[in-house]
Amino acid sequence: MQRAQLMAYIAEQYGAAPDYPWQKHPDYAVFRHPNRKWFCVLLRVPGSKLGLVDGANVDIINLKAPPELIGALRSMPGIFPGWHMNKEHWISVLLDGGQNDATIFSLLADSYDLSR
């Protein structure tokens, strides 16, 4: 999945436009509920931050997930502990890292529901 595809899906499915709150990181996008709570954060980080051997920049999304599923989710390809987030409640999903679009959309829907 590509960044543009994900952003278009979020706009269509959830009516959320990206917010860019960090001047130092202009490509970090936060997607919020109308009450301003985050349900998705789109980031471009060095792969080394996730423990990847290749240190090239990668696109990830941080999503909220049920704490009881975090361990199982992190055992799946392309899913990591939430980068720069509470690791008991958030995961990071590599956009081009082993999960198909349907799985990413399902995890996004869970995050949307859990973060209201």
TrEMBL record:
Keywords: DNA-binding. GO terms for molecular function: DNA binding. The keyword DNA-binding applies. Gene3D superfamilies: 3.90.1150.30. It comes from the Bacteria. Pfam families: YjbR (PF04237). PANTHER family: CYTOPLASMIC PROTEIN (PTHR35145:SF1), CYTOPLASMIC PROTEIN-RELATED (PTHR35145). This is MmcQ/YjbR family DNA-binding protein.
